[in-house]
Automatic annotation (TrEMBL), chains A, B:
Belongs to the SLC41A transporter family. GO terms for molecular function: magnesium ion transmembrane transporter activity; metal ion binding. It comes from Siansivirga zeaxanthinifaciens CC-SAMT-1. The keyword GTP-binding does not apply. It is found in: Cell membrane; Membrane. This is Magnesium transporter MgtE.
Length: 450, 450
């Protein structure tokens, strides 16, 4: 039966905390998965959450900590001593441990690390902290099962029994030579199926996908997804095995990236959720609204500059919203397709042919829309022949321009090494709005000659 | 060394095909992963791709087929006989086999299935085809490793050696009772670590996450992600073990969903890529542009209706683009946050408190923007006191309204069982554009009294 976070359950936990009924609390929470307990804790006050953290054993609370909402985790960590954090971290895999430590303020990090008792764990965490978050090194864990190619299957199984206890999930057994260089892999299935006196060198699979410790995290995600991998070993420039990355971290990464891109497209700058405070939400939303505002002021200046024309041809001004909306919509569509293409690596370098295609696409869409608008403006709004012509030519031109700008800007940013996703949303919309209105008046001037 | 698809490589393959140099082709392609070969095939003409499909053994080509671009796969399948397709399918896991068959035209499906030689495989594929694509049944494969709780560890390992050959990757061993009801799980690690004369019933883990065969695919994804699972067993209403779902399918599903939502937010209706034809792209893009167009026509009617006011207070018309852009941007921001919250299940049912929050948020953002616009309109555009007041009051009102509409519509759609993601992008933008302009004139009428 799936877990469901109900108000009743939260109330029950709260009242047990108020009554300090530790036994009932432990009994209630014992059967929940740590991810579910984290969901409950996210609903509680800090004091109540701390009560539960102190009550449960550190094996469980370490996992709960990892699953808490980032803001809540920060608060909980602030309420724990360096020694207490070190104890929690002792229970975690090295990658999770390093993630938690890197969230702490600089001066606390050293304090916590020095309190970790297991020297090997400590050294491994220190190693992981040195890698950039956005690289394979920042994603990998040191826990893995490693065998030497010279071992026998029987000896191997014996050793694996020892190593495997420390590794939560064994995906693959990595085979190394005596210099610790990765030479191949074995699945546990292969080991079970093999005869016990066979040498590892006889049965291992030498084609093993691996990534370099400095590879981009997004490239790692792409490789693991393409080849349907559940884990991938990480090596250094000399092919020496350093760690492994598991698919659950990649799943989290993909989700974060998708949400970030979605928010950028919608004009939200930082990672916020519906439940964040008004202040957090304002910080995330106001910057883009200000960009839109300056665009609006720019448009006002353009209209102001052409105010004589407006008095002579008042019909023109009715169609300003249409021109603006169309320019914005086309630009967002074009940029979204390019941004996705860049993310999936399906866009090759031929900028010119891509722009040509957008030009033709803009022409087709523009002609279709202009034809409808022509009929409506003529029959409904009774615009003159030249006015109608102006509106239609402007629409087609603006659609083509918006498509070209929407295509060009993300590709340009990407070539400069900037995340193209920032180019979608309000940025493209605003520039196309302003540019579209300017084009409209320029074309009107050419056709109507004011 | 990671695979890179270069023009040189594609040219090399093409010239080998032209020379019908089968040996060199086989030698070249032998070392590539099937996903890489699929990438090469996606670049070739259909004739060339068919040449390679016919050349390689069906074990490889079956996997290649799965990785091809959907359009290209359809073309290749159309060029294969029912018997040839059945052979390819014989090499695939049941879930992939069922996916390929379901892509075929109705009448060919039966023809292909009847040609599958392995009766068990045939029956399993038939079973899978009966489930809806969007459910756990549509995602699961029949391949899994199953043991009875009454077996011993040694007997179990012996049987697993048999079953495991058919299962590409063994994540977990599922433990069932004699009625085939799922009672628990074991990892291969547990089996290796256990003593060989122990009974399975003594060592298995009874807490096993599972999903019902009729569960929503998106719910399955949520469960697997939350609990960091690499595979999950699928059961029917009587807890009878039917199949299992692996994380690689969930990764693909998540990616598709994220891309679909992103495209909806950008106003693209069907799943298109930058490389699709102009006709495909037009079909995906034109519908939303038409919605935007009707919005623009609506705005034109409103302005037309207030044309007297425009002649009396020409300064008002300068700010139409600002009002429109701001309304659009705010609406998109609000709806994006709600849509993500709904997707992550982090939005609870309290509609009123959420609208109140958006109201306050709109007020804060509106006051900030209105203050800046007040200064600019007064000092730069020399608007009168009442005109400035009109613009500012309209801005604040429009921002609040847009935030409320952007919040309300997705929640409303979600309650009606409609995918809230369709509410983002042009739909929200257009309705807010039109509504914003209408509000602007109504407020102007109230303040300026024309």
């Amino acid at each position: 039966m799936p877990f469901e976070l109900t108000e009743d359950l939260v109330n029950q936990v709260e009242s047990l905390i108020q009554n300090a009924d530790d036994k009932a609390l432990q009994k209630l929470l014992k059967d929940f998965h740590y991810a579910d307990i984290a969901e409950i804790l996210d609903e509680l006050d800090l004091d109540e959450a701390m009560y539960i953290i102190k009550l449960l054993d550190s094996e469980t609370t370490a996992d709960i900590l990892m699953e808490l909402d980032e803001d809540n985790r920060e608060k909980v960590l602030r309420n724990l001593s360096a020694k207490e954090i070190a104890e929690e971290i002792g229970e975690l895999d090295t990658d999770d441990a390093a993630d938690i430590i890197s969230e702490l303020p600089e001066e606390r990090q050293q304090e916590v690390i020095s309190q970790i008792e297991d020297e090997e764990h400590k050294a491994e965490i220190r190693e992981l902290l040195a890698y950039d978050d956005d690289t394979a090194g920042g994603l990998m864990a040191k826990e893995l099962v490693k065998v030497y190619e010279t071992w026998t299957v029987a000896g191997c199984l014996r050793r694996i029994r020892g190593q495997a206890k420390e590794v939560t999930r064994v995906h693959s057994v990595y085979v190394v030579d005596k210099k610790n260089r990765l030479v191949g892999r074995l699945s546990l299935k292969d080991l079970i199926v093999a005869k016990s006196d066979q040498k590892i060198s006889e049965i291992y699979i030498s084609s093993v996908d691996c990534v370099n410790v400095n590879d981009d995290a997004e490239d790692v995600a792409r490789v693991m997804q393409k080849y349907d991998l559940e884990a991938i070993p990480v090596v250094d420039d000399n092919q020496i095995l350093l760690g492994r990355i598991t698919i659950d971290d990649i799943v989290d990464l993909m989700k974060e990236e998708a949400e970030k891109d979605y928010q950028l497209a919608a004009g939200i700058t930082s990672d916020v959720e519906a439940d964040d405070s008004i202040w957090e939400l304002t910080k995330a939303r106001l910057p883009w609204l200000l960009i839109g505002m300056f665009g609006g002021i720019g448009a006002a200046s353009i209209i102001n500059g052409f105010s004589d024309a407006m008095t002579k041809f008042p019909a023109l001004l009715m169609f300003i919203p249409l021109i603006q909306a169309t320019a914005g919509n086309v630009g967002v569509q074009s940029s979204a397709i390019v941004v996705q293409g860049l993310a999936n690596d399906t866009i090759d370098g031929k900028l010119f042919s891509r722009l040509l295609k957008e030009f033709l696409l803009g022409l087709v869409n523009g002609l279709a829309i202009a034809a409808i608008v022509l009929l409506i403006s003529h029959f409904v709004f009774k615009t003159t022949y030249y006015e109608s012509l102006t509106i239609c030519v402007a629409l087609i031109t603006v659609i083509i321009m918006a498509a070209l700008i929407g295509t060009f800007i993300p590709i340009f940013l990407d070539k400069r090494g900037i995340d193209a996703a920032v180019a979608t949303g309000p940025f493209i919309t605003t520039s196309n709005d302003v540019f579209g209105i300017l084009m409209y008046f320029v074309i009107a001037k050419l056709i109507l000659g004011f």
